[in-house]
């Protein structure tokens, strides 16, 4: 029992009110019983290892933090080798270590870039070294002057046939590579994206493997300037990563270090393009965007887990005759802010699982030289990355506010979680730039369908996640049949209005663009509307994948019922938030909007007794959560109190600086008061 009002038993009471089987929900969340078991084992392995402690991380200096990251990475690798962990286990171990570091770029981008863009011979040469960490690689694409506009990169790779070498050069300040993680201090090699110039002609951006540092003493090779780009947002957080700067002064590399799966330069300097689509140059980004969507649910579920547990512990107001105050989780406002985020965590989890499937499917097709699904993979990964990361960043901040003042303490875990997460809205493609990519696809399809609407039944039908657009005749005219609040529980009713909204917004944009003097001008003028149409399309994908998940066999008493409620909450809170879209496109009436809101209130009340159990199903250890507010035992107040004393400021009772700055001030005031 905690001192002064903290009531740890309260969480036990909350758990007792759950109306479903938490173990069954853990399986639904993780994807299989096996996945629960592996995740649990890896989480405990990390939590029990003192090297992986992270409770003082936000108090470390940048240098200490970076060294701590090197230590953790080396120790993690040692454990992976000693225990012969599988790839699945190693990935989970990395997740639970919970500290960004150079290994992420080595495994997450350097290795995939070589796999995707290197020839078989190049893979045979470089991958075994990378797999054993004999070399450490990063992904050096972004420059000081250009990140989003990849075609605008300035670094050059000029072929010199006399030496059979490329000369890597940074011709301007703005061509300095800037941002690549792991580049600043750790990497020995990089996949560098540069303009290929041969026979006096610029063939645009290509990838090259470049050694940057000596494998003997780690010093930069001649002609290579390297460093870290400086401290970043927040304490701890992404500062564990050595995002770096790189400049080349006529650095020579052998010709066979150009990644040559997409195109080649011959010994004589001839440029040859293979039959592989040039967009595969962007393949590594597609891969990482897909992992970022899966990670959104992890970050969001962590924040929600902290906020739900703490909201069940925290009490304010409502005391009658000296009785207990009200748990803040019982306030309808708290529920209406928190439960949509809980539902979003589940929604992103399932869409992330689906996207992983889509990516695997596309990869298999690419291996069989079927490139037809590449545009779908690009649009889905770009759109979902954008929508899920933006919403997750906002949601983490909302969870901080939901935890009141204590949420602002580092010990709540939320400030660091926000700081480490928020760059996901920018890296791997700025979220607006990525949504514009989705809107290009939507615009093309909408324009095509408008032209061919008469013969749509016989014409070429859109497939994959844009298949619904083929139903244009119905979706442009349909009116929702919802008549009672409970009618909104019908997934078909929800799907229809989300499809109609997305299609009508895309068609409206296409019609307005067609009125502009040129398509380019129209596209630019209407880009804010196009973004909204893209968001509507992506939200439809998430809702649809949640609904499809519920059509699967989901074992465990009450599990499917809870997920059905969460699915309805996810969809209806979006409907409520974007009511303007649904009304202005005529998909629903104002009354139907009000009915959706009425149902939302009822669903929140139904979720309330299950809320703590629904976050327990994420199966997070206290180590991974890293939050005194989100502790499993709910013993929040003693932990908060204890944590405060660990701050370096409390190492002495009288602070450093007292003699120089406080004492003279206080003495001076004394003199003044005596005057
Ligand atoms: C310390 C602890 C340690 C523990 C240790 C444990 C040990 C290790 C064990 C395990 C470890 C595992 C670790 C794994 C972790 C993995 C996680 C990885 C984390 C990553 C962290 C992220 C870091 C960030 C990296 C970056 O940011 S890299 C840089 C990213 N940059 C961008 O995204 C740039 C965005 N811009 C663009 O993508 C493009 O420029 C564009 C906006 C798309 C425009 O392209 P452009 O060619 O200029 O013009 P378009 O005409 O628009 O396009 C042409 C054409 O191409 C199509 N297209 C475009 N993109 C793609 C694509 N990606 N795929 C396919 N097609 C594409 C486009 O649609 C056009 O098509 P059409 O011509 O048909 O219209
Ligand atoms: C933490 C972190 C890690 C990173 N790691 C790596 C890495 O490992 N390797 C690497 O190569 N890069 C890395 N990056 C770089 C990252 O990929 C780029 O920052 C990102 O792609 C955005 O590009 P930018 O910085 O040029 O933004 P800009 O494009 O300059 O964006 C600035 C603003 O302009 C807007 N804008 C840009 N273009 C358009 C347009 N066409 N229409 C409308 N609005 C537009 C954007 O929405 C944004 O609001 C990292 C970045 C961060 C923050």
Automatic annotation (TrEMBL):
- Give an example GO molecular function: FAD binding
A Pfam family of the record is: ACOX_C_alpha1
Q: Tell me which cofactor or cofactors this protein depends on.
A: FAD
Provide the alphabetized UniProt keywords. FAD, Fatty acid metabolism, Flavoprotein, Lipid metabolism, Oxidoreductase, Peroxisome
Residue ranges of the Acyl-coenzyme A oxidase N-terminal domain? 21-136
Q: Give compartment(s).
A: Peroxisome
Judging by the UniProt lineage, the source's domain of life is Eukaryota
Residues that hold FAD according to the record: 142, 181
**Can you list the GO cellular component terms from the UniProt entry?**
peroxisome
> Where does the chain cross the membrane?
none
Active-site positions on this chain: 428
Question: What's an example Gene Ontology biological process for this entry?
Answer: long-chain fatty acid metabolic process
Q: Which family does it belong to?
A: Belongs to the acyl-CoA oxidase family.
Q: Read off the PANTHER family from this record.
A: ELECTRON TRANSPORT OXIDOREDUCTASE, PEROXISOMAL ACYL-COENZYME A OXIDASE 1
Report the protein name in the record: Acyl-coenzyme A oxidase
Annotated organism of origin: Triticum turgidum subsp. durum
């Amino acid at each position: 029992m905690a001192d002064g009002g903290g009531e740890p038993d309260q969480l036990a009471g909350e758990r007792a009110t759950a109306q479903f089987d938490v173990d069954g929900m853990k399986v639904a969340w993780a994807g299989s019983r096996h996945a629960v078991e592996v995740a649990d084992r890896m989480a405990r392995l990390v939590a029990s290892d003192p090297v992986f402690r992270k409770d003082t991380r936000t108090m470390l200096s940048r240098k200490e933090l970076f060294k701590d990251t090197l230590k953790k990475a080396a120790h993690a690798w040692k454990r992976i080798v000693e225990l012969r962990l599988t790839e699945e286990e190693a990935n989970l171990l990395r997740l639970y270590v919970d500290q960004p570091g150079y290994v992420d770029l080595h495994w997450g981008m350097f290795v995939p870039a070589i796999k995707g863009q290197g020839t078989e011979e190049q893979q045979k040469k470089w991958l075994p070294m990378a797999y054993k960490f004999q070399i450490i690689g990063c992904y050096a694409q972004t420059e000081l002057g250009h990140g989003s506009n990849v075609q605008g990169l300035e670094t050059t790779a000029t072929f010199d046939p006399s030496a059979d070498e490329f000369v890597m050069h940074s011709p301007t300040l703005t061509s300095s590579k800037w941002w690549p993680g792991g580049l600043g201090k750790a990497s020995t090699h990089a996949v560098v994206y540069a303009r290929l110039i041969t026979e006096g002609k610029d063939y645009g951006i290509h990838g090259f493997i470049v050694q940057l540092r000596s494998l003997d003493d780690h010093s930069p090779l001649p002609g290579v300037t390297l460093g870290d780009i400086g401290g970043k947002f927040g304490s701890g957080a992404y500062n564990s990563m050595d995002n770096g700067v790189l400049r080349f002064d006529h650095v020579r590399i052998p010709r066979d270090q150009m990644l040559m799966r997409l195109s080649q330069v011959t010994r004589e300097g001839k440029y040859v393009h293979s039959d592989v689509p040039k967009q595969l140059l962007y393949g590594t980004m597609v891969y990482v965007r897909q992992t970022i969507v899966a990670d959104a649910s992890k970050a969001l579920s962590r924040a929600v887990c902290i906020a739900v547990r703490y909201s069940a512990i925290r009490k304010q107001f409502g005391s009658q005759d000296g009785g207990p105050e009200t748990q803040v989780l019982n306030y309808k406002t708290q529920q209406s802010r928190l439960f949509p985020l809980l539902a979003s965590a589940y929604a992103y989890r399932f869409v992330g699982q689906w996207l992983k499937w889509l990516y695997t499917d596309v990869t298999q097709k690419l291996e069989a030289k079927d490139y037809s699904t590449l545009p779908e993979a690009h649009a889905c990964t770009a759109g979902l990355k954008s929508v899920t990361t933006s919403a997750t960043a906002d949601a983490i901040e909302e969870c901080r506010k939901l935890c009141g003042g204590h949420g602002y303490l580092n010990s709540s875990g939320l400030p660091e979680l926000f700081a480490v997460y928020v760059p996901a809205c920018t890296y791997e493609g700025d979220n607006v730039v990525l949504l514009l990519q989705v809107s290009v696809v939507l615009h093309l399809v909408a324009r095509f369908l408008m032209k061919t609407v008469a013969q749509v039944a016989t014409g070429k039908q859109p497939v994959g996640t844009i298949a619904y657009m083929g139903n244009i005749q119905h979706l442009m005219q349909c009116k929702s049949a919802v008549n009672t609040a409970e009618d909104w529980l019908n997934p078909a009713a929800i799907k229809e209005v989300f499809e109609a909204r997305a299609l009508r917004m895309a068609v409206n944009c296409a019609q307005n663009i067609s009125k502009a003097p040129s398509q380019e001008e129209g596209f630019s003028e209407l880009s804010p509307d196009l973004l909204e149409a893209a968001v509507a399309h992506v939200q439809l994908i998430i809702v649809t994948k949640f609904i499809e998940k519920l059509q699967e066999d989901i074992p465990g008493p009450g599990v499917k019922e809870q997920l059905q409620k969460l699915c309805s909450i996810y969809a209806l809170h979006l409907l409520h938030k974007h009511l303007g879209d649904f009304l202005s496109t005529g998909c629903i009436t104002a009354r139907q909007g009000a009915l959706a809101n009425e149902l939302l209130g009822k669903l929140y009340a139904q979720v309330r007794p299950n809320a703590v159990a629904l976050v327990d199903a994420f199966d997070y250890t206290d180590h991974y959560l890293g939050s005194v507010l989100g502790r499993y035992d709910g013993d929040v107040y003693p932990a908060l109190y204890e944590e405060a004393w660990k701050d370096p400021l409390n190492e002495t009772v009288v602070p450093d600086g007292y003699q120089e700055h406080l004492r003279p001030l206080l003495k001076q005031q004394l003199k003044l008061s005596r005057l």
